[in-house]
Specification:
Blueprint lengths: L14 H4 L13 E4 L4 H7 L6 E6 L4 H14 L6 E6 L4 H6 L7 E6 L2 E7 L4 H15 L22 H10 L3 H14 L4 H17 L7 H14 L3 H9 L6 H11 L7 H14 L1
Parallel strand pairs: 1-3, 2-3
Antiparallel strand pairs: 2-4, 4-5
Helix pairs in contact: 5-12, 6-7, 7-8, 8-9, 9-10, 9-11, 10-11, 10-12
């Protein structure tokens, strides 16, 4: 594979900067906030005039609630397409009462200052992603969008110099050496989402390099989707996999893996997740 990874379809050397450049200032937009009776109007209902807001009412006493809260924090991190507002029902029971909450956790989606849909209890991570993707794609275009003064003024941080080694290894076709660099960084910073993303992308590249004759038609489509994604045509990869997800679990697994390699707010990701939700339900 003779692709230049600093200027080709996948710029792995810049992954450590992509999401950091979208970090939100403390006084501007924050993708996940905790609200109470004094802040819910401005930070949830008013914000929903601009982007969809997921209002999560939960309690630390519930394992399902804490799991759902953590899942929404992960989904919201580093993006500006939607916001999550968390209500601690123990600290502010009056807010839960005002919203008519009967079960914890409860999730209410807000758009244009009003509730549009809700559900009770915990949900699997992939279904949460599909649900949020549908909110963003269907409701987001109808809203005002974020104001310019909500953008972060923070400059981009300096790139880890070790990423140059990873890029050089990739351009030499040495995927194992690149992975070793990412493992080195993750050993120091296990929560680094950008490096996890880069490592996962390298795994796809290595898989493409090692592709053998497919055992069946499904495997052929999985291999084709990998090649299309690496070549810079994720839409084609998603289309092929979406045609199989209803009948083939391997296709859904591969689709979710490839979707995770792009930014959650990427329009191609949102469109694919919306189509996935429609095909499964």
């Amino acid at each position: 594979m003779a692709q230049d990874f600093t200027g080709g379809a996948i710029d792995l050397g810049a992954l450590a900067q992509q999401r950091e450049s979208q970090r939100e200032a403390g006084t501007g937009f924050q993708p996940f906030v905790t609200v109470d009776e004094t802040t819910i109007e401005a930070q949830a209902f008013q914000r929903s005039l601009e982007v969809p807001v997921v209002l999560l009412i939960g309690t630390a006493r519930s394992a399902d609630s804490e799991s759902l809260k953590a899942a929404f924090e992960r989904l919201a991190a580093g993006q500006r397409a939607f916001m999550v507002a968390y209500v601690d029902a123990d600290a502010t029971p009056q807010v839960a009462q005002m919203l008519g909450v009967r079960v914890l956790p409860t999730v209410v989606a807000l758009a244009a200052g009003r509730p549009v849909t809700d559900f009770e209890g915990n949900q699997p991570a992939d279904q949460l992603e599909q649900w949020v993707g549908a909110l963003v794609s269907q409701l987001g275009p109808q809203l005002q969008g974020l104001r310019d003064d909500d953008a972060s003024p923070d400059p981009q941080p300096a790139e880890d110099p070790r990423l140059d080694r990873a890029t050089a290894a990739l351009n030499a076709g040495d995927f194992d050496a690149a992975t070793a660099v990412y493992d080195e960084i993750l050993a120091e910073d296990p929560a680094n989402a950008e490096i996890k993303q880069a490592k996962a992308t390298v795994a796809v590249l290595k898989r493409v390099e090692a592709q053998a004759e497919p055992a069946d038609e499904v495997e052929r489509q999985l291999q084709l989707a990998d090649r299309q994604f690496v070549a810079g045509d994720p839409d084609a990869a998603f289309d092929g996999l979406l045609a199989l997800v209803k009948s083939e679990p391997r296709a859904k697994e591969r689709l979710l893996e490839l979707l995770a390699l792009l930014e959650p707010a990427d329009p191609r990701v949102i469109a694919a997740r919306t189509r996935l939700a429609s095909s499964l339900f």
